[in-house]
Amino acid sequence: MNDLLTRRTVIAGLGLLGLGALAGCNNSGALDFKYGKDLSNKILGRTFKLKDPQGNVMTLSSFQGSMPMVFFGFTQCPAVCPTTLARAVQIKKLMGRDADFLQVVFISLDPERDTPEVLDAYVKAFDPSFVALSGTLEETAAVAKEFGVFYEKVPAGDTYTISHSSTSYVFDSRGVLRLGLSHSLNARECTEDLLTVMEVC
Amino acid sequence: MRSPVKHALGAMALLSLFGAALPAVAQTTVGEPWVRASVPQQQSTGAFMTLTASTDSKLVGVESPVAKTVQVHQMQMHNDVMSMSEVKALDLPAGKPVVLDTNGYHVMLMGLVKQVKEGDTVPLTLIVEDAKGQKESIKVDAPVRSLTATDGHGEHSMHDHSHM
Q: How many domains does chain B have?
């Protein structure tokens, strides 16, 4: 079993239709994803401004030239967040030599408890290349709204947990939103669609 | 009465061997318990396992010295939104394995008193109540797996699609 999905197999799979898109960056055209949701016509997450754990201000353009995959969560999350980050690690393995192009971005929905130190240790435990971003409570609410991400605090004992949207948002290298990956997709399915995004731009 | 866990496990194994001969004794076996490692200052993490009760029972509580609050939670997905809610009593139907994994029910260890590191073991006490209202305490030493661990049995996110 060959676990490595190369860009070539995807090009072959795209066939004639795909070749047109390969000619250049097609910013408006809808994409045909096998598993994920095409978000090419959605305008989400264009203007966020958050900080990385080192205190650098980060915007979408900070990731230009790479393919950012943005996911929202919190480090106290026992299930969806670690499995999504572990899936991202698997995706990078499947992408082989194209893996460096994928930039995993974890945005905290819990800035009160996710200090820069905790966030950095958390994402780096999965992969040293993963970036964690956070902001103030107001900035967090603004970025969630911008992405259409739902989240709410749910009391649990004398503390709280957070219910939240679990989609991963993928932008192409020019910062155009392209793909939404549901939590239910496996690493291989995600990788196939991510390679489609790479072929477009 | 505080018997070492090894003895308790041994006793459980013995009991399950003679289970057929002792139908009146309700008991619950715990398969593959594990706890996800935390990073420094992280305040909570999850514990996972498979529970099988010999008679209709309920998991009514979990205790652990590593966390201030321990609750059983149910994770649910509604239109892509992941939500968690506390489950006061988790049904354990007779003979049916109930899986506590990263996709549904799990034990939440909240207010960690210290970092839980890979390679450590976390003591857990499960309180199971049978249909007659009799409670048993089951002590388990759950090994800590890495933060990046996934469930060990063909999890949906890690499915092998080699037949494709």
A: 1
| Domain membership flag for residue B153 | no
Q: Report the DSSP beta bridge partners of residue A104.
A: A69
Task: Identify the closest residue of chain B to A186 by CA–CA distance.
Answer: B157
Partners of residue B108 in chain A, C-beta under 8 Å: 78, 156, 161
Q: Per the domain annotation, does B77 fall within a domain?
A: yes
pLDDT 10s digits, B13-64? 554 554 444 445 668 999 999 999 999 989 999 999 999 999 999 999 999 9
Q: Which domain holds residue B29?
A: 5-147
Asked if A78's CB is within 8 angstroms of B45's CB, the reply is: yes
List the end-to-end C-alpha distance of chain A, in Å, as a whole number.
29
Residue B98 included in any domain: yes
Work out the minimum CA distance from A24 to partner chain B, whole angstroms. Answer: 31
Q: Do B44 and A159 touch (CB under 8 A)?
A: yes
| CB proximity A90 to B under 8 Å | yes
Query: What are the φ/ψ torsions at residue B27 (nearest 5 degrees)?
Result: -155, 160
Distance from CA of B16 to the nearest CA of A (A): 32
- Tell me whether residue B141 is in a domain: yes
The partner residue sitting opposite A186, judged by closest CB among B68, B77, B156, is B156
Q: Which residues of A are annotated as a binding site?
A: 77, 81, 164
The CATH number that applies at residue B29 is: 2.60.40.1890
**Residues, chain B:** 164
Q: Which residues of A contribute to the annotated binding site for Cu cation?
A: 77, 81, 164
Question: Where in chain A are the domains?
Answer: 40-200
pTM of the model: 0.81
ipTM, two decimals, is 0.78
- Cα A9 to chain center, whole Å? 23
What are the tens digits of pLDDT across the range A114-163?
999 999 999 999 999 999 999 999 999 999 999 999 999 998 878 899 99
Asked whether the beta carbons of B52 and B97 are under 8 A apart, the reply is: yes
Using a CB-CB distance cutoff of 8 angstroms, which residues of chain B are in contact with residue A115?
Answer: 41
In total, chain A counts a number of residues equal to: 201
Q: What angle do CA A67, A69, A70 make, to 5 degrees?
A: 135
Superfamily of domain A40-200: Glutaredoxin (3.40.30.10)
